[in-house]
Specification:
5 helices, globular, mainly alpha
């Protein structure tokens, strides 16, 4: 699994997040981590800094083990995986993830969370 650049890794990343439920769990995990970080800055509750990765990765890893049935990519490529998590979050936030799936030649799978 050697990827020459982030764009190649992104295409592989999307295959490992093929189910809509997996992408939704990732979205919720990233959102909860960002809210924990923001709350820790606003309210000065530094314990929330520890809650950020627990909530973020906890939801994402749950989706890999119990929904997608594969291992999280963070173990092999932590930096690129983190960047792709943020990229997927941005695409989902702006409603562009289905278009990105089509661009990469993947069809969105209809599935209920």
């Amino acid at each position: 699994m050697n990827h020459k650049n982030l764009e190649e890794f992104w295409a592989f990343y999307v295959t490992q997040h093929s189910k809509p439920s997996t992408r939704r769990f990732h979205f919720l995990g990233t959102l909860s981590a960002l809210l924990c970080l923001l709350s820790s800055l606003i309210f000065g509750r530094w314990i929330l800094l520890m809650a950020a990765p627990i909530s973020g990765y906890g939801l994402a890893w749950y989706s890999h083990f119990f929904v997608e049935g594969n291992a999280p990519l963070i173990f092999g490529h932590p930096f690129w995986s983190f960047l792709c998590d943020l990229k997927m979050f941005a695409f989902m936030l702006t409603g562009q993830m289905d278009r990105e799936l089509k661009r990469l030649g993947k069809r969105p799978v209809l599935q209920v969370l």
